[in-house]
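Today's session is about reading a structure prediction critically. Students often jump straight to the picture, but the first step is always the sequence itself: look for stretches that repeat, for charged clusters, for runs of hydrophobic residues. Only then move on to the predicted structure, which in these notes is written as discrete structure tokens rather than atom positions. Here is the chain we will use throughout the hour.
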Amino acid sequence: MFLAVVLTILGLGFICWLLFTLAVYALPFFAAVTAGMWAYGTGAGVLGSLAVGLIAGVATLVGGQILFSTIRSPVVRLALAVAFAAPAAVAGYHAILGLSAIGIPSETWRQVFAVIGAAIVGFTAAARLTLFTDLSVQARSAPGGVPPQPPPEPLRLPAPAE
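Below is the predicted structure for this chain, in token form.
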């Protein structure tokens, strides 16, 4: 019985970790599925639709990262962060709602936890999008920013005395 409780807690912890790790990929996944389904509907076949979906998902993720790291307008960056965070929040809402059904009998409290979980997952996805930006690119392109510093010289130890 004790082992079952421990494994259940570990399993739920792993699911939550996976949810937060994969939250930033909700928009690229949605774009990939949508493009793949469109390609399949137009007669591309299974392999063609998989290729189109993969290309669309990678292009969405890489394009979002490049745009977020190069555009300096706070309004555009906020819109881009919301575009990545909104699908993640929806996915987080449904994941937390499903997980809360395991131990919470009240529908009201399940909804409360699901909304709180959606907000946390959405903010996590937006924060992870900012982690993809290269700090050296930001320092070089920031107006009035500090110019990039050369890498430090390697530490050289003195030769041993004979």
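Discussion point for the tutorial: The helical segments are 2-22, 26-41, 45-70, 74-103, 107-131, 135-141.
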